[in-house]
Amino acid sequence: QVQLVESGGGLVQPGGSLRLSCAASGIIFSIYTMDWYRQAPGKERELVALINSGGGTNYTGSVKGRFTISRDNDKNTVYLQMNTLKPEDTAVYYCNANRWVGSHSINYWGQGTQVTVSS
Hints:
Blueprint: E1 3-7, E2 10-12, E3 18-25, E4 33-39, E5 46-51, E6 57-59, E7 67-72, E8 77-82, E9 91-101, E10 104-109, E11 113-117
Parallel strand pairs: 2-11
Antiparallel strand pairs: 1-3, 3-8, 4-5, 4-9, 5-6, 7-8, 9-10, 9-11
């Protein structure tokens, strides 16, 4: 059974930092691309950052220079270090594991963790 369990969310003041973690089980973690998505109230879910199996990363423009995604394959965990947080970063953050098998995309999702940036 595949499980992705996020942690590390909470309430932080603008300009503060948080580190999210997503621990995976039930998959061969090292071969999956790991993504962080977020969904704010009334908005669609958006891709925030990804890290592929080779360690390559990509970020959406609004978080470049502030967020850093990393992975520890020994711990089956992906992290999202979030610095200089802004109120517009407030959202539920979701972890996603994905890979392609032929023409089929395999996706697994965590349950989400709330991040609230407010004074």
